[in-house]
Amino acid sequence: MSRKLRVAIVGAGPAGVYAADILTKSEVPAPFEGASVDLIERDPTPFGLIRYGVAPDHPRIKEIVKALKRVMANEDIRFFGNVSFGDDLKLDDLRQFYDAVVFATGARRDRDLDLPGIDLDGSHGAADFVYWYDGHPDVERDWPFQPHQESVAVLGVGNVGLDVSRILAKTAEELLVTEIPDNVYEGLKKNVAKDVHVFARRGPAQVKFTPMELRELSHSPTIDVIVHPEGFELDEGSLEAIRAAKSQKLVVDVLQNYLAKEPSGAPHRIHIHFCQNPVEILGEDGKVVGLRTEVTELDGTGNVRGTGEFQEWPVQAVYRAIGYYSDNLPGLPFDVTAGVVPNDGGRVIEIDGSALPGVYVTGWIKRGPVGLIGHTKSDAAQTISMLIDDAPGLEQAAQPDPEAVDAYLGSRGLEYTTWEGWEKLDAHELGLGEAHEHERERVKVVPREDMVRIARS
């Protein structure tokens, strides 16, 4: 008797939800009729990066949640939150209940940076800071702002670096209207940063900002954006990059506008420095007191070379936003250098080069932490196409009945959350915002135990 293809997708961020949507809408070959998907997520809530990786003052990006909610309304898609792969479920456990497993676990931690002074007090990873201001349950409730940290550095010229810079430069009152938790608002009130210095190793045509993010820096009345002319170079490689990509030309245009604009005298400033390669975080008594950079120059191809000239910047904190790095998943091969699970278009590849039957990857764990949220759609389409091609030859699950999963999780005593539970938590957070003395769309609940209690009530 034919049945639906049963697939577990580990990770309920955009990559996982898009993969579930594509699969359940696809024609699946015999012996299966259609597909059903269980999304398994370590957080009690769905949406991953949208909830815990996007800055709270970016409501337009969070409009994506509306589209993801429509996907989750599909009766062939279920959500199991607060279930950790590797601790609560292993690959062999999943194989009992599913014909195939897709990993969409993303990249959750900061990429390491081998820099003298990186472990000083006042040196932070951007991912940790983002998780804090986005209210992730697994990070400390308090951020260690210090009363002397009036000048800080941000290393990295991607959108995360801009988010971090903007949050550091804005006032707590400006962010109160967003969905930040109360502990984040209280923490931001302790932030005394007046000057945020963003350092780029190369020139303006090589930055990874998007035009919208870059323009938004100037939307706050309390912030002046100052682009410094030193290192603002466009070599032949830069001009080729601008000609090749309209978005890159728009970024350079915005930077040139900032360069020409006189500061208004706003109380906070975001400085953007080009052709400055960080080489050491300077410390005294175990604390950050400065940053040393080497001046670089473009070599004609868009790359840079060192000049042997060094500068020291008196900053009291350093935030590194040089990229995210994926976790090594138990039972799967892992490429330590690239920070991905080795794969061929989505099929997981063992160390000996053979395919790991019935196991797939999509999103950042597949291709690394590059690209925008929307890019995960085409990524998921490729992976799901391969899974469907493989479907007739997959080893079928011993217990394909969906209720067997519920029974197993219950027998383990796991306090898992469901989509219905998320809807309860969602309504609760919206209610907290409505009841707040200031008009707020929502107020996030932070403690994991509180989220689980509300969702399971």
What's the structural blueprint in terms of helices and strands?
Elements: E1 3-10, H1 14-24, E2 32-40, H2 49-52, H3 64-72, E3 77-80, H4 91-97, E4 100-103, E5 109-110, E6 123-125, H5 126-133, E7 151-155, H6 159-169, H7 172-175, H8 182-188, E8 195-199, H9 211-216, E9 223-227, H10 236-244, H11 246-260, E10 268-273, E11 276-284, E12 287-298, E13 304-313, E14 317-320, E15 324-325, E16 343-344, E17 347-349, E18 355-361, H12 364-367, H13 375-390, H14 402-411, H15 419-435, H16 448-456
Parallel strand pairs: 1-2, 1-4, 2-3, 4-18, 6-14, 7-8, 7-14, 8-10, 9-10
Antiparallel strand pairs: 5-15, 11-12, 12-13, 16-17, 17-18
Helix pairs in contact: 1-13, 10-11, 15-16
Description of the molecule:
It is a single chain. Helices cover 32% and strands 22% of the residues. It is built from 16 helices and 18 strands. The chain has helices at 14-24, 49-52, 64-72, 91-97, 126-133, 159-169, 172-175, 182-188, 211-216, 236-244, 246-260, 364-367, 375-390, 402-411, 419-435, 448-456, and strands at 3-10, 32-40, 77-80, 100-103, 109-110, 123-125, 151-155, 195-199, 223-227, 268-273, 276-284, 287-298, 304-313, 317-320, 324-325, 343-344, 347-349, 355-361. Strands 3-2-1-4-18-17-16 form a seven-stranded mixed β-sheet, sandwiched between helices. Strands 6-14-7-8-10-9 form a six-stranded parallel β-sheet. Helix 15 (419-435) crosses helix 16. The longest helix has 17 residues, at 419-435. The mean pLDDT is 95.
